[in-house]
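Pyrrolo-quinoline quinone repeat domain-containing protein
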Amino acid sequence: TPDSGEFIGYDVHTGQVRGQFLPDTDIFFMHQRCYRSKATDRYLIPSRTGTEFIDPNTGHWDINHWVRGGCIYGVMPCNGLLYATPHSCACYMEAKLYGFNALAPASSARRIPKRIADDQRLERGPAYPSLASGEGPGEGNPDQTVGPHLAASSPSSSEGGGDDWPTYRGNAARSGFTAASLPATIRRAWQTKLGGRLSPVTIAGGTLFVASIDTHTVHALDAGSGKKLWAYTAGGRVDSPPTVW
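Tokens:
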């Protein structure tokens, strides 16, 4: 039943109740996920709040609210694993799994990783300092960090820095965050008319980039004055902010 979580099993030939049971653990329901429930020869996987494994023989519930699948497709039990696809679910934002995952049951053949302190969970590679500062893998060399047009038109492009916004929502993590300081009172510095439907902008090395979606054109402007530096017409629609690398 949808509210109590009770499962009732019927004989398909007679309609007689063959078994019924309530959850044996504390649960709560939000709403059915946006995909169909699944089942294996051992478990029911109703996908109510997350991914629940329910043993119809014992009535035991194993709940995993933090495992979601993509809309329509959902999750796939197969090969002794549970495959969970990338998804856009907005529930459990701080705990849910991201990306494509293959989950396995606990086994003595697989050693559980030791607990790692929070300050040791991230391993920073040699490129981390330059990427964190916004300079890119070339560590400030304009021939490696930006395209040829930017290097030629913006001498300051080799500086990089935390004020840049080189990709959609600021960085690869799509955080939408910048460490740049803003004044309490903001005024318009300049305005330029490009026409057409425009993408969000990106900024790097003193140059602002924006795409004119329906005309297949990428525009580069001086970030300080709005002066048009160059434009490039591509062979198809450019419907997202240009990424500067």
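Residues 128-172+194-233 form a domain with the Thrombin, subunit H fold (CATH 2.40.10).
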